[in-house]
């Protein structure tokens, strides 16, 4: 922002009265407060990349919405055409058949909801406890908080589809993150523990069982113990805050561990994963008791070194596409599959 003619030093006109100086100082202070913060080159690149991503995302969303509208319109026309060319008796049979199919679909969905509710209820008593620590919202911008909420939605949807789900906890639900979570349709019906308090306070009677999962730990997690409670840091863009979860756990005097990723594959960059990836790896391990299978089923190919991806490339690429598709589908499922009030 260019300086005003009277805001400099050497080029400023001489002061004629002593009253004008405070006004000049006030104007300078106002100008300083109005100046936007100067971003570094890296920050500018990151911002531009984020803006391009958001623009592309909006375009894809609009295109998908338009395609859905066209599909609905096409099916409506096909249905009307099929009814127009038949007799009244055939029309009655066709309508009855359609109602029957719709009823069966609703009954199947109702059974799936009930089955999910039963599995999650059993998990509350007998399942592996997994905590997502949400006390980092003050370190994230609105886009990152939104991303974290999407990851939490995905965690709940994936967990609900498991034959033997874990029991999920959300701790530190306060401030912006709490408001964002409450905007999820049906969130209040989730079969999950939601705590405004920290996990240290909420689980104070089981402090010795807490294990914070962090890539910075020196302890390698070899097995999951049902008696332990595994904590995952709910923090997006952790590269800005290296070591923050390890430091937090050490200050609280609780155990830490890292997933044994290095024993089975080489990562192309850091071993930091998203919240939903860590949760899904844990769920996959609970199902298979095999770390290698769990890692290769969940970790995207783009995060692996080439040598580790050869021989699994075709399967992994398909898995990655399915994972990306599931992320969108699961957002709907975690809303559609919430328990009803009945």
From TrEMBL:
Chain ranges of the SAM-dependent MTase TRM10-type domain: 116-306
Keywords: Methyltransferase, S-adenosyl-L-methionine, Transferase
Annotated segments matching region Disordered: 1-81, 95-119, 306-342
Biased composition (Gly residues): 1-10
Catalytic activity: guanosine(9) in tRNA + S-adenosyl-L-methionine = N(1)-methylguanosine(9) in tRNA + S-adenosyl-L-homocysteine + H(+)
Residues annotated as transmembrane: none
Protein name: tRNA (guanine(9)-N(1))-methyltransferase
Organism in which the protein naturally occurs: Phaseolus vulgaris (Kidney bean)
Gene Ontology CC entries for this record: nucleus
Polar residues biased stretches: 19-30
S-adenosyl-L-methionine among keywords: yes
EC number: 2.1.1.221
Keyword match Magnesium: no
GO process annotations (BP): tRNA N1-guanine methylation
Biased composition annotated in UniProt, kind: Basic and acidic residues: 51-80
GO molecular function, one term: tRNA (guanosine(9)-N1)-methyltransferase activity
Compositionally biased intervals (Acidic residues): 311-325
């Amino acid at each position: 922002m260019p300086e005003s003619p009277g805001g400099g030093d050497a080029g400023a006109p001489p002061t004629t009265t002593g009253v004008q100086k405070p006004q000049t100082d006030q104007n300078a202070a106002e100008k300083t407060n109005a100046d936007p913060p100067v971003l570094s080159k890296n920050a500018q690149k990151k911002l531009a990349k984020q803006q391009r991503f958001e623009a592309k995302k909006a375009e894809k969303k609009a295109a998908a919405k338009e395609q859905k509208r066209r599909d609905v319109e096409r099916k409506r026309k096909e249905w009307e055409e099929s009814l127009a060319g038949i007799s009244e008796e055939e029309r009655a049979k066709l309508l009855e058949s359609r109602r029957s199919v719709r009823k069966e679909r609703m009954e199947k969905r109702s059974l799936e909801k009930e089955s999910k509710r039963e599995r999650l209820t059993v998990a509350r008593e007998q399942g592996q406890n997994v905590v997502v620590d949400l006390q980092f919202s003050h370190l994230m911008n609105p886009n990152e908080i939104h991303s974290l909420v999407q990851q939490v939605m995905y965690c709940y949807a994936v967990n609900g589809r498991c034959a033997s789900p874990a029991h999920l906890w959300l701790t530190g639900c306060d401030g912006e993150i709490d408001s964002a979570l409450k905007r999820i349709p049906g969130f209040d019906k989730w079969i999950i523990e939601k705590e405004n308090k920290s996990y240290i306070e909420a689980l104070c009677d089981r402090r010795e069982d807490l294990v914070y999962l962090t890539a910075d730990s020196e302890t390698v997690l070899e097995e999951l113990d049902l008696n332990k409670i595994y904590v995952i840091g709910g923090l997006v863009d952790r590269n800005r805050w290296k070591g923050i979860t390890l430091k937090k756990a050490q200050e609280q005097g609780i155990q830490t561990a890292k997933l044994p990723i290095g024993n089975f594959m080489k990562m192309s960059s850091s071993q930091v994963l998203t919240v939903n990836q860590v949760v899904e790896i844990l769920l996959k391990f609970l199902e298979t008791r095999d770390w290698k299978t769990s890692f290769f089923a969940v970790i995207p190919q783009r995060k692996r070194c080439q040598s580790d991806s050869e021989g699994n490339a075709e399967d992994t690429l398909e898995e990655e596409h399915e994972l990306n598709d599931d992320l969108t589908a699961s957002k709907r499922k975690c809303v559609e599959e919430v328990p009803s009030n009945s």
